[in-house]
Here is the input.
Amino acid sequence: MNFTAWLSKSNSSLLKVAGLLIGVLVLYLLAWRTGYYCDAIGFNPDFCWLLKTGEIICEIGHLPHQDPFSFALKVAAERGDPQPYIIYQWLAEVIFFQAYLLLSLIQIIAVTAAIYALSFIAIPLRSCSRLNVSAVWLFILVGLGALTSNLRNVVRPELFTYLVTALIFCILQSMRERHASGIDNAIRWRYVLALTLLLIFEANVHIAFVAHLILLAFYSVAFCAEDILKTKQLSGISKTLLMGTLTSTIATLINPYGIGLWLHLPRMYFSIVPQNVEEMQPITYELALKETLVYPFLILVVFTFASLAVFIFRNRKARIWSPLGILSLLLIVASVAFAFHTRRYQVIASLFIVYELTNFLSLGSGFSKTKETEEFLKRKVSFLIIEVGVALFAILGTAFYHNKVTVLAIPSARASFAPPFGAIKYLMQSYNGGRLFADNEVSDMCELYLPNCQIFIDTRFDGYDSKLMSDYWRILMARDEWAKILDWYGIEWLLARPDQEIGKKLPTLPDWQIVYKDRDCVLFHRGSSVKSP
Here is the structure.
């Protein structure tokens, strides 16, 4: 080899290594951005009742059997329509309360940012890089998924769901590799144990464990189908996944309610959600034009289907349509469809897309990794640098933007919600424990800050029936005999925001008076006593 050829080859290798290092730097910047969004979004109103419920559980040493906040639920029970009270996120609530006792608010946000960064950057990159895909393509894919997660960088139980989802996909990819290597009749009990423990944890922190069980069931069918088509017998990995799916399903019964949690699932999944809850609305053309946070997901979808089109064209003569390949394609399409139907699912859908698109494209050729990339990714220290760096940059991003985006408080202010801390401070001095009506987000605040608070309803929409929801809207919008409903429920305090109709019409009633007012809210108190039901 002459000097010119050697220099050309060396320069090519250096360029590829330099590109890889630039990719790592971009991942660090994405983690930094994750910390920024965690700080910017902070604590939403839901965190108030999550924190307070965790406090109650820790104080009494067991789960409360009745709702400690809503007097409307007691009224419903008295009229012969009791609502089931199941704390299906109890473990997350206890974790949040203990974190609140041990850490400052900014430290809680920093830990949250690190979990998001690991779930959407470090873990997917480590897992997917084992497959035969280009590092540049993979870095772009993971980067778009990480940017999509910025939509939901909040301190909520779902952050544990994202972490569990990333880990389950990591396990499934490892099993796919073993399955592709050949027939092995041995059951891998470490996979079974790992899946079982993850599902026990998920069943006590969030309701998404059902989606994980469905995912495991689909993979079990695909593994078994591939074995039957190729060898007419089940491989050890297929048996392992079948066993893992079975034990994981049984393991979800390890919760304070046992089978009762499963029986409560239809109510949770089909609860009445107010139409003005933006995260439960579909992605429309108008939203795509005005909401910049949706752009990464839209770009991810375009990138995904473009990659699929190129891959399928290049491998049109290859045998890529195996049961596992078809499953990956179906999961990608289903994830995109669910995300467009309900905005909230964009984040979890991005994780499904990142993993399943990588799985599908690794079945053929056209997106293969280079030799330099493969050598870099084989080194354990390479991923250690990425994972530690990603977590560290997420924490640093949180610290750097602290108090520059918004004042960190529980709950945090945002464009559509200004927490009425002035009224809450007044109530802390004057509230006598009477029945209080406010919109659901302000009610969340009252639960946290007012001792023995009796609110109407809060943001736990799955806990209320259609009658309570109807009465809530009739009061809030001051329509359809709203004054009689106020009397019937015996409401003594009412806190309204300036743009709400009830705040404009309530002064027309003689027995209500304004006791506090600022730019964020108006607080009313009933002067005369009304007999409650």
Notes: The first helix runs from residue 3 to 41. DSSP finds 22 helices and five strands in the chain.
